[in-house]
Design goal:
Phosphorylase Kinase, domain 1; alpha+beta; 2 domains; about 250 residues
Length: about 250
């Protein structure tokens, strides 16, 4: 059914493969063994992503024998790009605008991604696409076993999510802010002190942006604030605010 091209990644029982299927390249996400929780998570991912149809979200093509078949997006993930250094500010903003459009659609569909980070963003030419909804929360569905465990990456994780809250869409907006900060500065926000920040240490402050991006400081201060009530209310507001901020450089 699938002709393996190469293994792209493997974490625990979950393997992601590049394969040929029906005359096209696809990405196949499958389990190598049996785990009730891993099986439920893969099934939940399929339920979640099947609701999303947007140009900035990698589409799910099919579910076959428990394996998820995604469209193959030629390009690189943002983590690989940032490993070479920060992006020009205009390029970083283009990526973030695409992500906010993807999240605007996801949140309107009742889906919270819960793991917005560079390695889950694919860059294809001038377009950025959000992928990997393996940790996603669908507010319309009952939580699955283990849903309250710590899921995510601390460098891009909102404080409330670090505390186990996975029902607030504004956590995704924090992730976008953290990603933008990394893209501009070359390092994630709060650096080696991120765990102190997440656990409530008020002495940890956000390092300022480089001079060429200083006009974005108020925007990022709001996106990365500890209190979700002080962040942007939704992806649409964050996107419109970003579009309206005048560049002083």
């Amino acid at each position: 059914m699938f002709e393996l091209v190469r293994v792209m990644s493997q974490q625990g029982l979950v393997r992601v493969e590049l394969a040929q299927w029906r005359g096209r390249l696809v990405v196949v996400k499958r389990l190598l063994g049996f785990s009730p929780e891993a099986t439920r998570r893969l099934e939940r991912e399929a339920e979640v992503v099947s609701k999303l149809h947007h140009e900035n979200v990698v589409p799910l093509l099919a579910t076959i024998d428990g394996a998820l078949v995604y469209a193959y997006v030629p390009g690189v993930n943002l983590a690989e790009v940032l490993a070479e250094g920060p992006l020009p500010v205009t390029r970083a903003l283009k990526v973030v605008r695409d992500l906010l459009r993807a999240l605007e659609h996801a949140h309107a569909s009742g889906v919270i991604h819960c793991d917005v980070k560079p390695s889950n963003v694919l860059i294809r030419g001038e377009r950025a696409l959000l992928t990997d909804f393996g940790f996603a929360k669908d507010v319309a569905l009952t939580a699955i076993t283990g849903d309250q465990q710590l899921l995510g990456t601390p460098n891009y994780m909102a404080p409330e999510q670090f505390q186990g809250v996975r029902t607030d869409h504004r956590s995704d907006l924090y992730g976008v802010g953290a990603l933008l900060y990394h893209a501009i500065t070359g390092e994630p926000p709060y650096g080696s002190q991120v765990l102190r920040f997440l656990t409530g240490d008020e002495r940890v402050v956000l390092a300022p942006l480089p001079s060429e991006a200083s006009w974005l400081q108020p925007f990022l201060d709001r996106a990365l604030t500890r209190d979700p009530e002080r962040r942007f209310a939704h992806a649409t507001e964050m996107l419109h605010t970003l579009l309206a901020v005048p560049a002083s450089a």
